[in-house]
Amino acid sequence: MSKKETKPAPATSNETSAPSAPTAVVGGAPRPPAQTAEQRYSYVKYDGEATNKSEAFKKSFVELTRQIESNTKPGRAQANVLTRLEEAFMWVGKALRDEQIERNGSAEELPERSNG
């Protein structure tokens, strides 16, 4: 098992007076700094790099969805595959969001999205 190391996280302009959380290093790969509860669930506006990556992933996910729909029988198995694919795309978005925050130190927050 790898030994865990910590180092201080860089300060960001939107931090409150709370102390900075350490960045964990596991197996040589640093994890993003711990986020406050509010930051963890905030919608952020993608920068150009994150937008480009998201669009590239989306094209791949759309193509894979079409292949699944064209080559598998509708039913429970197909529905599960498509649901997991949607979930995977959601996690891609979260990964891009976290990468952008790590790269830029912070990100512009967006108001909560609504379906109405």
Structural features, described:
By secondary structure, the chain is α+β, with helices and mostly antiparallel strands. It has a domain at about 35-110. It is built from three helices and five strands; from the N terminus they run βββαβααβ. The protein has helices at about 35-40, 50-70, 75-105; strands at about 5-10, 20-25, 30, 45, 110. It has a three-stranded antiparallel sheet with strand order 1-2-3, with no helix packed on it. A two-stranded antiparallel sheet has the order 4-5. α2 (about 50-70) packs antiparallel against α3. The longest helix has 29 residues, at about 75-105. The protein is elongated. Residues about 10-20 have low confidence and may be disordered.
* Poorly predicted runs: 11-22
Could you say which structural class the secondary elements and strand pairing correspond to? alpha+beta
Gyration radius from CA atoms, angstroms: 18 Å
Distance between the termini: 49 Å
Tell me, briefly, the overall form. elongated
